[in-house]
Amino acid sequence: MEQGLKDEIEIYKRALKREKAARKAAEEILEQKSTELYDLTQELKQANSKLQKTVKEQTTELQGVFENIIDAYIVMDLWGNVLKMNEAAISLLGYNNSNNDFNLFAIADKDEVENVMSTFEVLMSEGSVTDFKVKLNTKFGKQIIAQVNASVIIDENNKAIAAQGIIRDVTFENKYRQAIEVEKQKYSRIIANMHLGLIELDKEEKIMMANYSFCEMAGYTEEELIGQVGKELLPAEEDKELVHEKNIERKNGRSNAYGARVKKKNGDIRYWLISGAPNYDLNGNIIGSIGITFDITDLKNLQLQKEGLLKTLETRNNELHEYAHIVSHDLKSPLRSINALVSWLKEDNKTILDEVSMQNFAHIETTLEKMEQLITDILAYSSAGSEDKEKAEVDLDVLITDLVKILYVPEHITVSINTKLPVVKGDQTKLQQLFQNLISNAVKFIDKPEGKIDINVKELPSYYEFSVADNGIGIDNKFHDKIFKIFHSLKKSKDSTGIGLSIVKKIVDLHEGEVWLESQVDLGTTFYFTIKK
Amino acid sequence: MSKLNILLIEDDMIEVMKLNRAVSSLKLQHNIVEANNGEDALKVLEQKDKLPDVILLDLNMPKINGIEFLKILKSDDRLKYIPTIILTTSSNKRDLLACFEIGIAGYVLKPLKYDDYVFKIEKLLSYWSMNELITA
């Protein structure tokens, strides 16, 4: 048993010894660790102070940036109280947080409350907002439109603790933009409501934009038009080539205007006046073209109608002219035959015919002459109104002086031109006939032993007033209107057919003038007429 | 003065009588061939060996009118050399111009009075009888 106890003691002793040794080893390790820890702490201390230095430097640097930033910069807490603001912010808003507390929310215009709150919510949930526009009332009593770009500042636990933002005054910018917008709307309205069609084509001649009027004109909706190639869809078959050519011109930078036929959606053909110009971008490159269109169908139809009428009128005039000549020929030919036959009868029966018969033959001949004159005058009258010659400068002084020389004027009548006659624009032959008819008329009605015919002219602002005065039998007032009408002769005689004065009237009308007369029975008559300068 | 072969193209009987009477009363020896219209005249002109020296042509005729006849005449290689004088009552400037454009040797208006007519015919024929003519 004793031996057993001894063994047991021995075991404990050994264990104790081992334990001692182990404790010692542990102590040694502990000591070593402790030294390491100390060293580490020292190192950390050093690093920390280094870091602090760096942080300080950085903060100073930031402070510099913050103070020198051109835009207004503000830091506020989550209730809008301004914590920090730079010089630019102070001068923009007029408030200074270092003097008085001031709250950013409080200076927002009162009708912006909702706007501010909802934006603030976005800021909190998203962490930032950009291009937030808000009306702010500055300390100077001025309202500005501020553009705010803001973000939240968070602490180490990712918790928002403040917000910072840059504020820009965009009041003017905004006003300009509004003004531009107003102008833009104004022009859009004009474009939409004007009665001119407007389209914008891209380089491939596809329609990019068409205004209301254009759609109306073409009968398509804007949706149907957009993307379509204009020159394929719209022009009528006959004018496709024309439109194509004009588009090429436009591509070369030339503006143009032309008329073309267009087929509407419903198949109607309309005439459009198309005016096109190349469209440039800001750098001056051609990016397509702009076309303005105007429906001129009604005008065009009127024009065509007018042309047609003019053509018909011309044909009619020609026909009338020919007709007058044919009628005159057909009427004159028998007169010639009768005259020849009468003349032969006279000649062949000279010895048999008595004086009365010879006189009757003479009457036949006189009647034939009168008939002949009548036909000649009617022909002259019918062609007097036709304007088949261009008006030219006519020197009336030369013309009328020559005319007086060749006209038959009896010995006892003197024709005098008392004022130098002017040069007028007109038809020479007709002007001569005008004077000739008036002079011959005067000659015919002079009953005095000493006849006088005076030709005068008076210059008035826009026309010349001519007068042909005689000392003949005069014309009773009641006939003054009648005598210019065809076949109204006041004197039944061989040489008076009643056409001469109606020709005068026609010629004066042709020269845009007027004709009238003054007369006293037995004393004489003065015919006046005007010719436009 | 040479004796002329005259082709008178005229549809009016009395006009034909007028020329014949005028020529005989003037005691001229000219030979007058009559044709009542353009068609007849063309038949006369088919005899190339008996072509007239001058043609007196009326403008207003049925069937082929004077101007149409003149055109046919002037497009013929041989006939175009025959002097053609228009004898008409028409003083229509357009006719006058048209005739000279196609080619005529004269344009004489028929006066109303027969005596004036004789006077004109005398001058006309004496002028042409003085001329050297291709056919003569």
Structural notes for this entry:
The complex is a heterodimer of chains A (533) and B (136). Chain A is of the alpha+beta class. Helices cover 49% and strands 24% of the residues of chain A. In chain A, a hairpin with a 5-residue loop joins strand 9 (269-280) and strand 10 (286-295). With 136 residues, chain B is of the alpha/beta class. Chain B has helices at 13-25, 38-44, 66-74, 93-102, 114-130; strands at residues 5-9, 31-35, 54-57, 84-88, 106-109. Chain B is globular, with a radius of gyration of 14 Å. The interface between A and B is medium-sized, with 22 and 21 residues.
List the helices and strands and how they pair.
The complex is a heterodimer of chains A (533) and B (136).
Chain A: H1 2-68, E1 72-77, E2 82-85, H2 87-93, H3 104-107, H4 113-126, E3 128-137, E4 143-154, E5 160-169, H5 171-193, E6 197-202, E7 207-210, H6 212-218, H7 222-225, H8 230-233, H9 240-251, E8 256-263, E9 269-280, E10 286-295, H10 297-348, H11 355-384, E11 392-395, H12 396-406, E12 413-417, E13 423-426, H13 428-444, E14 451-459, E15 463-470, H14 500-510, E16 515-520, E17 524-532
Parallel strand pairs in A: 12-14
Antiparallel strand pairs in A: 1-2, 1-5, 3-4, 4-5, 6-7, 6-10, 8-9, 9-10, 11-13, 14-15, 15-17, 16-17
Helix pairs in contact in A: 10-11, 11-14, 12-13, 13-14
Chain B: E1 5-9, H1 13-25, E2 31-35, H2 38-44, E3 54-57, H3 66-74, E4 84-88, H4 93-102, E5 106-109, H5 114-130
Parallel strand pairs in B: 1-2, 1-3, 3-4, 4-5
Helix pairs in contact in B: 1-5, 3-4
* Annotated CATH topology of the largest domain in chain A: Heat Shock Protein 90
Rg over alpha carbons of chain B: 14 Å
CATH topology of chain B: Rossmann fold
Taking all Cα atoms into account, the compactness measure Rg of chain A is 58 Å
Biggest protein-protein contact in the assembly = A-B, 22 and 21 residues
Q: How do the strands line up in the largest sheet of chain B? A: 2-1-3-4-5
CATH class assignment of chain B: Alpha Beta
Distance from first to last alpha carbon of chain A: 173 Å
CATH superfamily (homologous) name of chain B: Response regulator
Low-confidence stretches of chain B: none
Put simply, the count of helices of chain A is 14
